[in-house]
């Protein structure tokens, strides 16, 4: 089973100058629903991460997109492939949760991170700014339970 959050993510979640703590979800009547949120990642005085509502972006903030998948069936679902696209005006920072995410520069072919390419006969890492989507496999989603995947991004003014 493949669930793709592209339509949900791109339906107004990201606005370059002002984001609110956005929450989008599919209908609860779907066998598996997705709830997508965006929060600013800030560190407290002890260095611990805190998530807060996004009110405005100046380009330095880290925005964490989290897609929470909930199984509304009365039985477990196995091996669900879920995809989280990186919004067009954002760049992936390299932080994905869980870290087992596969990445893609075209939204079609997914490979383990870090992605590499051959330039002039030399293998080099693909810059995170070129990552377009991340994909995870949720091995087991029990009946009535949820699982979440997340990716950290930053506003990329060069893409605006």
What can you tell me about this protein's structure?
The chain has about 160 residues and is mainly beta. It has one domain. The chain is about 5% helix and about 50% strand. Strands 2, 3, 4, 5, 7 and 13 form a six-stranded antiparallel beta sheet that branches. A five-stranded mixed beta sheet has the order 1-6-12-8-9.
List the helices and strands and how they pair.
Layout: E1 2-4, H1 6-10, E2 23-25, E3 32-43, E4 49-52, E5 62-71, E6 77-85, E7 90-97, E8 102-104, E9 111-112, E10 116-119, E11 122-125, E12 133-141, E13 146-155
Parallel strand pairs: 1-6
Antiparallel strand pairs: 2-3, 3-4, 3-5, 5-13, 6-12, 7-13, 8-9, 8-12, 10-11
What does the average pLDDT come to? 84
- Uncertain runs are 2-27
Q: In DSSP terms, counting alpha (H) and pi (I) runs of 4 or more, how many helices?
A: 1
Number of domains: 1
Strand content: over 45%
Shape: globular
**Helical amount:** under 10%
Secondary structure class reads mainly beta
For the largest beta-sheet, the strand count, sense and barrel status come to: 6 strands, antiparallel
Distance, first to last CA: 34 Å
The number of E-state strands comes to 13
Rg is 16 Å
User: How do the SSEs run, as a string of H and E?
Assistant: EHEEEEEEEEEEEE
């Amino acid at each position: 089973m493949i669930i793709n959050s592209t339509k949900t993510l791109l339906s107004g979640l990201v606005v370059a100058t002002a984001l609110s703590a956005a929450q989008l979800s599919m209908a609860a009547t779907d066998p598996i629903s997705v709830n997508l949120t965006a929060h600013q990642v800030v560190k407290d005085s002890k260095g611990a991460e805190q998530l807060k509502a996004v009110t405005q972006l100046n380009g330095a903030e880290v925005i964490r997109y989290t897609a929470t998948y909930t199984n509304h069936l009365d039985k477990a679902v196995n091996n669900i492939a879920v995809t989280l696209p990186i919004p067009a005006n954002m760049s992936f920072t390299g932080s994905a949760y869980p870290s087992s995410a596969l990445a893609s520069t075209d939204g079609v072919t997914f490979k383990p991170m870090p992605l590499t390419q051959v330039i002039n006969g030399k293998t080099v890492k693909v810059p995170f700014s070129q990552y377009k989507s991340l994909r995870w496999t949720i091995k087991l989603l029990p009946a009535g339970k949820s699982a979440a995947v997340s990716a950290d991004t930053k506003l990329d003014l060069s893409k605006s």
